[in-house]
C-alpha cells in the first residue's frame, strides 16, 4: 500500500481488506509535530479512500520496532511547539488561544481512527508511554502483549493529559480508582493491570510478533462480516457512549430504518443456505463525477 505509506508510517494489506499501519519513526517512535500530523492525515486519507470505494474493513496499528510501541511525545519537538504557539509579543489571552488551537489540532489528529467507519485495532508491546495511551484510547479494540508496560506520563512533565486519555478513559474503562491512580502517579502498569482497568480486552503471551498476529487474525474475522453491519455497529456504539439509552434507541431506530434495506442480509442468508462464504460489496461508493 505504497499509496498510503509515509515517511514514518508503513501501510500494507497482509490479508484482503485488512490494512496494517506500522509506526516507524526511529529510534523509539517519539511523536514530533510532523509525526502526529502525519498520523492524523493518514487515517483521514484511509477514511476518504474507504468512502470512495476502497474496500477497507479493518485496520491494525502496531509498532514496527521489536522492543517498544512508543516512547510518547518527542520532548524536543514539544518544547519548540510550545514556544512557537505562545507568542510572547501578544497578550496572555491571544497567546492562550494560539496554544489552544494547536492542542485542538493535536487532539483531532490522534482521534482520527474514531472518525473511520471501519474498526481500528491496536496491538501494543513493550513501553506504551504518555501519548501512546492517548493514541490507543481512540481505537476500537486494544490488544496488549504480555510484555507491554503503560504509563500515563504527563504528570511527570507537569501537566494533565490533554490529547485524549482523560476524555476517553472514563468511557472505555471500568475501574475509576485505578484510572485515577495511574493518572495521578504516572507510574508504569503492566498488561495485566491494563486488562484489570479495562483499557485492553486481551493480553497475548509474548511480544510484538505474537500480539500483532492475534490482532491481524481478529481483523480477518471482522473483515468477513457485513461491512454495513460492522460500520453501523461502530457508529451506534460510539453514539451510545455519548448519549442516553433513550436517545440512542431513537437514533438506532432511524439509522437501522435505512440500514436494514441492505443486500448484505440476503447475502448472509444465501451463504448460510448453501454453506458457502458470503461475498459483500465494498461499503463506499466511488463517485461518478
TrEMBL record:
Pathway assigned to this chain's UniProt record: Lipid metabolism; fatty acid beta-oxidation
PANTHER family per record: DELTA(3,5)-DELTA(2,4)-DIENOYL-COA ISOMERASE, MITOCHONDRIAL (PTHR43149:SF1), ENOYL-COA HYDRATASE (PTHR43149)
InterPro entries in the cross-refs: ClpP/crotonase-like_dom_sf, Ech1-like, Enoyl-CoA_hydra/iso, Enoyl-CoA_hydra_C
GO molecular function: delta(3,5)-delta(2,4)-dienoyl-CoA isomerase activity
Family named by the database record: Belongs to the enoyl-CoA hydratase/isomerase family.
CDD domains referenced in this protein's UniProt entry, alphabetically: crotonase-like
GO cellular component terms attached to this protein's record: mitochondrion
Any matching Pfam family: ECH_1
Coiled coil: none
Keywords: Fatty acid metabolism, Isomerase, Lipid metabolism
Source organism (scientific name): Hypsizygus marmoreus
Signal peptide positions (record): none
GO terms, biological process: fatty acid beta-oxidation
Protein name from the UniProt record: Delta(3,5)-Delta(2,4)-dienoyl-CoA isomerase, mitochondrial
SUPFAM superfamilies per UniProt: ClpP/crotonase
